[in-house]
Write a structure and sequence with these properties.
This protein is α+β, with helices and mostly antiparallel strands and 266 residues long. The chain contains 10 helices and 6 strands; from the N terminus they run βαβαββββαααααααα. It has helices at 17-29, 43-49, 87-97, 115-130, 134-142, 150-161, 179-199, 218-234, 239-246, 251-258; strands at residues 2-7, 33-38, 56-59, 66-69, 74-77, 82-85. β3 (56-59) and β4 form a beta hairpin. α4 (115-130) packs antiparallel against α7 and α4 packs parallel to α8 (218-234). It is globular. Residues 6-102 form the GST N-terminal domain. InterPro entries: Glutathione-S-Trfase_C_sf, Glutathione_S-Trfase_N, GST_UstS-like_C, Thioredoxin-like_sf. This is GST N-terminal domain-containing protein.
């Protein structure tokens, strides 16, 4: 059995966009797994439990020093005794360890572009599209975080995105957003989603997979994870989610519908 470590919110389960990348892979491959829910402030304990080193570091803007960055998803596969962190590394491991399941990480192409480069390129486009929504989404997410994890969550997101806003002591200092500022963020995001629209094949509800093939690959799960995150924190009937599914001729709701068979939570 594979254990998937995911972050825990107050009344929302399986909302974390990075964990959804791995969850999609597990579901697509039809591999049995269970989820272990972990508070945001306790993610480092998963690494310590499995003697894992953090996969990356980041600079603390308040000190200028590098610090370990403990992230999820993490999986532990008891059939091999291995723990793996980072969604792309998890996908590569599952492709290699379970070769009879559908492959999700494309081979390096003739142009020399490997899966990591594909993901990095796509993430750059996606973050560009979502950039105007960073503060609205942070404000919406924060209310769903468990009380004991809220200080950690605010500090972590400030380290991630504070430089975009002049390095405030905390992103909380920029809240609550005025409605006109939030509306401006949504209007800007609608425009920047044009870049994302150009990257994903198909028009409107006739959307295709990122690489244009018959089956999804890891990059499709990256996009699907962020769409589920936005749908979860805002709610299906919210004005925010209705805006997103209305953009680009209904493309994003249709894309998430294409992934509906792989959205189980175990």
């Amino acid at each position: 059995m594979i254990t998937l470590y995911d972050s825990r919110l107050t009344h929302l389960q399986a909302a974390n966009p990075t964990t959804w990348k791995a969850r999609f892979v597990l579901n697509y491959k039809n591999l049995p797994y269970k989820t272990e829910w972990t508070p945001y402030h306790d993610i480092a304990s998963v690494y310590h439990k499995h003697n894992l080193q953090p996969v990356c570091s980041r600079t603390d803007p308040s000190t200028g020093k590098e610090e370990p960055y403990y992230t999820i998803p993490v999986i532990f596969d008891d059939s091999t005794g291995k723990a793996i962190a980072d969604s792309l590394e998890i996908a590569k491991y599952l492709d290699e360890t379970y070769p009879d399941t559908p492959k999700v990480v494309p081979e390096t192409g003739e142009d020399g572009v490997d899966a990591k480069q594909q993901v990095d390129t796509f993430m750059g486009v996606m973050y560009g599209a979502l950039g105007p929504l960073v503060l609205p989404v942070f404000q919406q997410s924060y209310q769903h975080v468990e009380e004991e994890s809220k200080p950690f969550f605010a500090e972590a997101r400030t380290k991630d995105f504070g430089a975009w806003f002049g390095n405030p002591k905390s992103l909380l200092d920029l809240l609550p957003l005025k409605k006109e500022d939030e509306d401006k963020g949504w209007e800007a995001a609608e425009k920047t989603f044009a870049g994302l629209d150009a990257r994903v094949p198909g028009r409107g509800k006739e959307v295709g997979w990122y690489l244009g093939g018959e089956s999804p690959t890891f990059v499709d799960f990256v996009l699907g994870g962020f769409l589920i995150y936005l749908k979860s924190i805002y709610g299906e009937e919210s004005e925010g989610w209705k805006r997103i599914v209305g953009w680009n001729e209904g493309k994003w709701g249709a894309f998430l519908d294409k992934l509906s068979a792989y959205q189980a939570v175990h």
